[in-house]
Amino acid sequence: MYAKSAWKKYDCEQLKKVMEFNEDYKRFLSLGKTERECVKESVKIAKDYGFKELKEFTSLKAGDKVYVTNKNKNVAVFVIGNKPLEAGLRVLGAHIDSPRLDVKQNPVYEKNNFALLDTHYYGGIKKYQWVTIPLAIYGVVCKKDGTSIDVVIGEDPTDPIVGISDLLIHLSADQMQKSAAKVIEGEDLDVTLGSMPLKDEEKDAVKANVLRILKEKYDFEEEDFLSAELEIVPAGPARDYGLDRSMVAGYGHDDRVCAFTSLRAVLDTPTCDYTTCAILVDKEEVGSIGATGAQSKWFENVVAEMINLSDSYSEIKVHHAMENTKMLSSDVSAGFDPLFAYVNDPKNSAYLGNGICFNKYTGSRGKSGANDAMPEYFAEIRKIMDENGINFQTAEIGKVDQGGGGTIAYILGNYNMNVIDAGIAVLNMHAPMEIVSKADVYEAYLAYVAFISKL
Ligand code: MN
Ligand code: MN
């Protein structure tokens, strides 16, 4: 209720910066369709900024620019600060996985002249949104000989696309009576791969032809799907949205928009007192579990490794470093949509264009699962936001008991560090086409820079 439109404060020069920054973001979003692609692109950008991989260092000192990856699905960048790591870090944490359709282990089958690909959806989706749109296939196929093949089909304008069919309206009398949850069922999210039979093939000739194409173009066999990780995502680049070009439409703003702004904040900020860090994690959409999720010991291991390279190592120093760290859980918030105003408390909603959004807590059914940040901590942060002229707002995810959501905030909170959710408001969250305001993208970037350099 104290928030104002960020657009109104920009002069011509600032407006130009906002638009230029968003061109960089659109490029990142268009290339970063999966967590693996985001890691590749982040490493490329970090190297352009002069960052070097942790394993290249024999010791660490203030001003060193370090990046480190984990299993091709996590990346973190650090600028070593003037104070020892034991004093804590200033961390921006975002996730680079987004809802999508994952290809099953035994996926390809033929039915009624079509070759189809069976999928299992990943994260929270409205299944009916994923039919009759252009889709691309991304991922890796790992072969028994130890090699792995990168697959991208459907992104180059000369590539074919794939897709999932829906029933024609003319014959949908029964389907239209179903609830939205059932109108397209998970097991029916099968991707059309082809319809042309292989000549002289008797059985499943269409499937045989598709497998022949995969063998010729990518050199893998049907059996290699067993150890593949292929993801079906919306095809095509991010675009300007609105006649005024004030917004960006694209797949995967949740949470690549906070990932990119966090990454750039660390890359663009010179050496600070505290070590600055942006960490980009996987698996948030399915609970942050596993080796590449926020619950992984990976980040702690990296901090231990860095203490070992910068100082005399002791376990207590690692505990101190984690506990003294201050963090923003950089994740998106639900943008207020005037077409669905009834789900929000208007006083406690995130409006597109009003700047970075802080969520003191997320969760559902009585804040269950919420990190619920310390008010003492948020007081420090809003002081810095005000002192640096950054537009910010605070919000909850919808009205009480309307639903809710979670982030990685509580996981790092478990180290006894101060964490608060801070990100960008998104319309159509988890849809194949999500929307953000360019002003919010820029304000989030400025907020992240202020947080890591001033707090
Ligand atoms: Mn998210
Ligand atoms: Mn999400």
Explain the overall architecture.
With 455 residues, this protein is of the alpha/beta class. It contains 10 helices and 22 strands. It has helices spanning 12-31, 35-48, 180-183, 205-218, 253-268, 298-310, 315-323, 375-387, 409-413, 438-454, and strands at 52-53, 65-70, 74-79, 89-95, 100-111, 114-122, 135-142, 148-153, 191-194, 228-234, 239-241, 247-250, 275-281, 326-329, 333-334, 356-359, 363-364, 392-394, 404-405, 418-423, 425-426, 434-437. It has a 9-stranded mixed sheet, sandwiched between helices. It starts with 11 loop residues before the first helix and ends with a helix. The mean pLDDT is 97. One manganese (II) ion binds at residues 95, 254-255, 284, 331-332.
Q: What's the layout of helices and strands?
A:
Blueprint lengths: L11 H20 L3 H14 L3 E2 L11 E6 L3 E6 L9 E7 L4 E12 L2 E9 L12 E8 L5 E6 L26 H4 L7 E4 L10 H14 L9 E7 L4 E3 L5 E4 L2 H16 L6 E7 L16 H13 L4 H9 L2 E4 L3 E2 L21 E4 L3 E2 L10 H13 L4 E3 L9 E2 L3 H5 L4 E6 L1 E2 L7 E4 H17 L1
Parallel strand pairs: 1-2, 4-13, 4-14, 14-20, 15-21, 16-18
Antiparallel strand pairs: 2-3, 3-13, 5-6, 5-10, 6-9, 7-8, 7-10, 11-12, 12-22, 16-20, 17-19
Helix pairs in contact: 1-10, 5-10, 6-7
This protein binds manganese (II) ion (MN) (2 copies).
Quickly list its features.
455 residues; six-stranded antiparallel beta sheet; nine-stranded mixed beta sheet; 24% strand; globular; binds manganese (II) ion
What spatial order of strands do you see in the largest sheet? 1-2-3-13-4-14-20-16-18
Spans where pLDDT lies below 50 across 5 or more residues: none
Strand proportion, as a percent range, falls in 15-25%
Instruction: Give a count of the beta strands, DSSP E runs of length 2 or more.
Output: 22
The chain-level structural class is: alpha/beta
How many strands, what sense, and barrel or not for the largest sheet?
Answer: 9 strands, mixed
Cα end-to-end separation: 25 Å
Write out the distinct hetero groups bound to the structure.
Answer: manganese (II) ion
**What share of residues is helical?**
25-40%
Rg result? 23 Å
General shape: globular
Number of helices: 10
